[in-house]
């Protein structure tokens, strides 16, 4: 298997950006919908579909934003020539892992270790 991290990272970054935009649009749409319904209350213990959607989208957005930051960091490592090396043990990260998670900072052993950063 030949890995092209630059292409992979660019592809993932583009996908994550698109997802980020879609989520922002969805959150805005939910907010618009909520402003039209007077029954909505953020502190309603039963919650509403709109709040649940918004909470889910917001959580996803946080995740996507984090992924984007990780992808950027990975691109910086690529530029610095340290890409694909575990940040903890310094050993190369398996290609299969990088193919699945091109932004991975740690090898599978270190990532599975408890107390990881
Ligand atoms: Zn490691």
Describe the structure.
By secondary structure, the chain is mainly α. It has a domain at 5-82. It has helices spanning 5-36, 49-80, 95-100, 108-112. Helix 1 runs antiparallel to helix 2 (49-80). The longest helix is centred in the first third of the chain and has 32 residues, at 5-36. The chain is elongated and about 55 Å long. The relative contact order is 0.15. The mean pLDDT is 88. Bound molecules: zinc ion. Zinc ion binds next to helix 4.
Cα(first) to Cα(last) distance is: 29 Å
Percent in strands: under 5%
Q: What is the general shape?
A: elongated
Bound molecules: zinc ion
Radius of gyration: 19 Å
Largest sheet: none
Low-confidence stretches: none
This entry's quaternary arrangement is: single chain
* Overall average pLDDT: 88
Helix content: 55-70%
Order of helices and strands: HHHH
How does the helix and strand content classify structurally?
A: mainly alpha
Helical element count?
4
Q: How many E-type strands? A: 0
Question: What is the topological layout?
Answer:
Blueprint: H1 5-36, H2 49-80, H3 95-100, H4 108-112
Helix pairs in contact: 1-2
The structure holds zinc ion.
Zinc ion is lined by residues 86, 88-89, 91, 106-107, 109-110.
List keywords for this structure.
117 residues, mainly alpha, 64% helix, elongated, binds zinc ion
Structure at a glance:
This protein is mainly α. It has four helices and no strands. The two termini are 29 Å apart.
């Amino acid at each position: 298997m030949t890995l092209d991290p630059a292409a992979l990272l660019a592809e993932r970054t583009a996908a994550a950006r698109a997802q980020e935009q879609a989520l922002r649009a969805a959150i805005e749409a939910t907010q618009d919908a909520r402003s039209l319904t007077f029954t909505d209350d953020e502190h309603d213990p039963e919650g509403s579909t709109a709040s649940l959607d918004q909470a889910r989208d917001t959580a996803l957005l946080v995740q996507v934003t984090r992924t984007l930051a990780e992808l950027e960091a990975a691109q910086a490592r690529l530029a610095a020539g340290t890409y694909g090396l575990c940040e903890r043990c310094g050993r190369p990260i398996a290609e299969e892992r990088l193919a699945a998670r091109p932004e991975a900072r740690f090898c599978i052993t270190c990532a599975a270790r408890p107390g990881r950063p």
